[in-house]
Amino acid sequence: MDLNFRFAIVSDLHTALPHTIWDHPSRFHLVEVSIAAFESVLEHLKQLDLDFLLIPGDLTQHGEPENHAWLAKRLSQLPFPAYVVPGNHDVPVLMANEQSIAFADFPHYYRKFGYENPQQLYYNCQLLPGVRLIGLNSNSFDDQGNQIGRLDNQQLQWLEAELAAMGDELVLVMVHHNVVEHLPNQSNHPMANRYMLENAPELLILLRKHGVRLVFTGHLHVQDVACADGVYDITTGSLVSYPHPYRVLEFERDHLGREWLQIVSHRVESVPDFPNLQQSSREWMGDRSFPFVVKLLTLPPLNLPLAQAKKLAPDLRDFWATIADGDGVLDYPDFPLEVRRYIQKYGAITHTGYPASIDNNSRLLIGDW
């Protein structure tokens, strides 16, 4: 059966009404632009013939009730349906405190956006005839109340039952934490593993078993498309972090049964207080990059001495911005060979060492053909 639909992804909005903004000298998030940037995106998306919008988590700055309420009201005014899942910033605490909503309160704010059953933090809904969306909650809490990125056993059991009953419908999955690695050794690296779903391998087994090929994630704040054994994890950068991207995608199933996904990425170029947002935001990130880069260089696998890391770090000022851009090529020929080769791995290259520019604009053939 032929199938064609168009949708958009905007991720990690970190919505922050002006009176809720708190400052931190090292934060990469430029939350000051959150509402203006989102309005700019919506102005563009309203001109397109969209079937729906996906928002893979971190809807708010830090789970503030007024920011959740503002976003829910704004989404209700759109000319197309929108669907959300919670990010770590949306439900940072199990019980409500003076700043954030309670974990269990999240679905009550978003009943119109996937959560018809507000007693459950995950859902299965029909997007279009023959097309379903599974919205997962990747936020859990350990016995000490610490937040972790993991699907609990009850949710996994629910998911297996839902997928088994799906028939031949196309299934899209949306979850905040990454399911496929987007960075070198992401699952084990001490700086990157918190962006991965702890039990991603278990989820991937389920998805492959039931023929699910497309997963949409956020959290990492980079533009990247990764694939593991036929499952694509398309992660979208943050709207409040360089390069302030969003995506418009078109799915097509032709008369031969081949399935294609066309990805076109856009960026917010300007908002009232930041007329040259791309340059200002890249500089903002670079200004805060030194401690981040030093930590990367001194941790495994490089384990550089602190003095050497501090010497190299200024040359890596734009390291994370280049990764966030997507399709980046990273090469520092004057670096020690071991460091040079390691940094190269963060670029958009295949396992065989060739450039693969699929992170921003690409046409993917989905499935095993």
From TrEMBL:
It comes from the Bacteria. The keyword Mitochondrion does not apply. Pfam families: Metallophos. Belongs to the cyclic nucleotide phosphodiesterase class-III family. Gene3D superfamilies: 3.60.21.10. Keywords: Hydrolase, Iron, Metal-binding. Residues 5-222 form the Calcineurin-like phosphoesterase domain. One of its GO terms (molecular function) is hydrolase activity. This is Metallophosphoesterase.
